[in-house]
Amino acid sequence: MRQIIYFLFFCFFLSLSGQEVSCPEKIIEISRNDNRTMQWLDELTNRIGGRPIGSPNYEAAVQWAVIRFREWGMEVYLDSVTTLPVGFNRGPAYGRLLSENGMVLHFVTPSYTAGTKGVQRGHVLIEPKTQREFERMKGVLNGAWVLISGKSNGWPIDISPDADAKRMEIRLKNAEIEKQNDEIRRQNWINRNGEQKPLIPLIEEPALFYKEMVEAGVLGIIQSAEIPLTAMYDRKNLMNLRWDNLPRVPDIKLDEHQFAVLEQMAKERRYFQLEFDIRNYFRPGPVTVYSVIGVIPGVEFPEELVLMGGHLDSYDISTGASDNASGVVPAMEAARLIMASGAKPRRTILVTLWAGEEFGLLGSSAWVNKNKAAMPKISAMFNRDGGPNVATSISVTEAMFPYFEEICKPLTSLHSDFPFKVLKATPSPKPKNPGGTDTAPFIVEGIPTFAFGTDDPYGTNFSYREIWHTERDTYEKCRKEYMEHTAVVTAVTVLGISNLNTLLPRQGMWQEEISPETQKKKK
Q1: Segment (H or E) for 121
Q2: Can you tell me the distance from the alpha carbon of 152 to that of 509, in angstroms, rounded to the nearest whole number?
């Protein structure tokens, strides 16, 4: 809160100058000749790359945003969010099958998992499912790559004590099933010319003997994964990591088609080798994580706020372009356009680049918790975290509609392919679970939150599910015209709200909650 108080005093001083507020036409004029949205997208995704919190890439993104904000004449501060026990950085990765039908392997590893110890070659085995199987093969696990069951959903194999306990329960159950199957086999042998009773399937759970296999010297575990490949990181386990208990072997998520080939070869007990070079690196903590808050001071009501932005962090098997550089850079360009226009907003505009959204809304939650006193003075919070399609509408309450209708007039005919509409939204029940993006902590506080409605009028065939935390979340998925137009829409709308004579009215946002007692009285 101290940072905000500092800026509010600064803003009050500026308000004494009595400078006129610039009109949105100036913003539109500048954008037609000098729209830099794609420059910021290129810098953030292609020069810096994927940005998990705790990584040097994320820290580079923070430094980059600070430099840009200051370059445009804005104030900026870093809001401390959390401290991680260790940091992580991803380097190059390579793998191949060494056999007569050899091939280059297509795979990923989740963040905060181990790399190889240089180039490592080894034979391939299928994981044991019972203690008897483990005892039979423990002598050949040393130096092996082990194929584990299940289909990867992007998360690493859970290596927590709770997961070990769960695996032990399943192993005990499988031991009982194995005994029953021994008896079934015996009876089938006795009755070998008669009806054969099927065996009872063992309980499937990936890496049932994870700790034992690591201690036996396996090189790593390999799991089948759907295309496009997805990779996450384990939130709860990361907070329990220390320099002396880091993961010891790679957790590889392999193209399901290639996995099927390897699995068939292993089932046939053929001898073949895989070679991997995976450069995942850890660094000692603690690593402090920050959100970046850019400030355009208000000249008349500096203590009242309008927020716009998106989350700066991303997963790192790709470059985090759609999720969520496509939310960050239009807000940054909107801020630059407002500053370049010479506008002096009546209310303070905060450009909020949140940290740790992918880690559980850490940045936005931390900011809200530290600034409870500011909640009644927030006119609006804008968040973009839904992909790179173009902003074409906004849905608002009946009470807000006249304000937005006037503010957005310049946008209705700004681009013939992207006519902008202000729509009326009917009140809905206040959500008990407000969602999984950075509007959530603000919704809980009753703040008016907005995400522009988007469209794909040029038919780019964009699919959010295709890029969501996958290897395909790259720069070319973000169409230039869409991104540039969205930046202008954001600038005009946010500046307009900051210059209203009043805060946006909050009535009509949610359906009135009727208590059971009131309902009984109405009946």
Answers
A1: strand 120-126
A2: 40
Looking at residue 19, its pLDDT comes to 41
Among 489, 467, 457, smallest CA distance to 391 is for 489
Please compute the mean of the pLDDT values over residues 35-46 and round it to a whole number: 98
How far apart are the two ends of the chain, measured CA to CA in Å? 48
CA 375 to chain centre: 26
pLDDT digits (tens, 9 = 90+) for 448-482: 999 999 999 999 999 999 999 999 999 999 999 99
Q: Which residue stretches of 191-289 are H helix? A: 210-216, 235-240, 256-267
Q: Which fold has domain 100-271?
A: Glucose Oxidase; domain 1 (3.50.30)
Query: Which option is the CATH number for 21-86+286-498: 3.40.640.10, 3.40.50.970, 3.40.630.10, 3.40.50.150?
Result: 3.40.630.10
Distance, CA of 488 to CA of 261 (rounded, Å): 50
Is 435 a residue whose pLDDT tops 70? yes
Task: Evaluate whether 355 touches 78 at the Cβ level (below 8 Å).
Answer: no
CA-closest candidate to residue 127, choices 216, 8, 63, 23: 216
Of 184, 164, 175, 166, nearest to 202 by C-alpha is 175
What's the pLDDT score for residue 429?
84
Query: Both tokens of residue 44?
Result: 């953030």
Are 219 and 251 a contacting pair, CB within 8 Å? Answer: no
Q: What are the start-end ranges of the E strands in 397-463? A: 421-424, 449-450, 453-455
Q: Where are the alpha helices (DSSP H) in 361-430?
A: 362-370, 401-407, 409-412
Beta-strand relationship, 220-225 and 144-152: parallel
Structure tokens at 204: 């499937």
Structure tokens at 401: 């509609």
Q: For residues 319 and 471, what is the distance between their CA atoms, to the nearest angstrom?
A: 8
Per-residue pLDDT reduced to its tens digit, 92-126? 999 999 998 899 999 999 999 999 999 999 999 99
Mean pLDDT of the chain: 93
40 class by beta-carbon count within 10 Å (0-12 exposed, 13-18 middle, 19+ buried): buried
Residue that the structure tokens 């194929």 belong to: 147
Q: Tell me the H-state helices in 241-311.
A: 256-267
Domain segments of the chain as ranges: 21-86+286-498, 100-271
